[in-house]
Specification:
The chain is an all-alpha fold and 282 residues long. The protein is built from eleven helices and no strands.
Length: 282
């Protein structure tokens, strides 16, 4: 009798966990699915009123022929959208490269060396992640204006590097915490100097963390709106700022189509990261 009761409770708990998992993923991905569905809505006025299936919103984004009128579109020209995408990619690639180097070097320094203000230094590295984006964006704006730097792509790159290095630092630090240091000690015992040990032993072992931190920095940079909004110049509009400007005039399927392409791009980047991580851990 007790065994049957235990068996039923085990099956019930398994079903409850499965239901919880389904509801959890529905909560996360249902909004994205709605965006995907309504990006094919032919209604140019009311996005929530379905009036037919069309690819015209996607065709307009890529500058292809479509049946949409000029009044139905937010984008005056495909060139505007292309410039915003290019600005986002330039900022994301540059900040990812710089932040990955800074975050990795900082993680290695804090993991390998001891000094008196180590805990305080670690807190300073975490601070940019804790500070609200709007405060950090305003502070950067005041700083750039005070020292006379013209707002543009350079200020956006500098602004993103101030907090993206912290994300890379956390990911690489987690990798270093689980790394067996005896490999480095064995390399040193065999006569390798510090540089050779880092290049042939340490870097390959922490590479999954470095790649994960770089991809995280890239996605956050591509997605950042608040800080970029404060420190972007006139001709340096990034894609999130461009979409925000479109949203101020209402939500149309054209925006949903752009959002769907951004989600697809994020999935490709995440898949690439998982692929390279699986190869580096073999």
């Amino acid at each position: 009798m007790l065994e049957r009761l235990t068996y039923r409770l085990t099956r019930l708990s398994g079903k409850v966990l499965m239901l919880y998992g389904i509801l959890f993923f529905c909560f996360i991905y249902a909004p994205m699915l709605i965006i995907l569905v309504y990006s094919f809505n032919a209604n140019p006025i009311n996005m929530m009123s379905w009036s037919g299936f069309t690819f015209d919103w996607y065709r307009s984004i890529f500058g292809l022929s479509n049946k949409l009128t000029e009044q139905a579109l937010y984008i005056e020209s495909t060139e505007q959208l292309t410039n915003a995408v290019m600005n986002s990619l330039i900022v994301a690639f540059t900040t990812t490269a710089i932040s990955t180097v800074i975050g990795t070097m900082t993680a290695l320094a804090l993991a390998r060396y001891r000094f008196k203000v180590k805990a305080f230094y670690r807190m300073l590295v975490f601070m940019p992640m804790i500070i609200p984006d709007i405060v950090l964006g305003l502070a950067l704006l005041i700083y750039f204006v005070t020292i006379g730097v013209k707002l543009g792509l350079t200020t956006i790159i500098i602004g993103h590097c101030t907090f993206l290095g912290s994300y890379v630092f956390i990911v690489v630090s987690a990798r270093l915490a689980g790394m067996d240091q005896t490999y480095e000690e064995a390399s040193a015992d065999l006569g390798a100097n510090s540089w050779v040990t880092f290049r042939r032993v340490t870097l390959p072992l922490i590479m999954p963390g470095v790649i994960g931190g770089a991809l995280l920095a890239f996605i956050i940079s591509m997605d950042d709106l608040v800080i970029t909004y404060f420190i972007a110049g006139v001709d340096s509009t990034t894609l999130p700022v461009f979409i925000y400007g479109m949203l101020r005039r209402g939500v149309k399927p054209e925006i949903n189509a752009i959002a769907t392409l951004m989600i697809l791009f994020s999935l490709i980047v995440a898949s690439a990261g998982l692929y390279f991580r699986s190869r580096s851990t073999r």
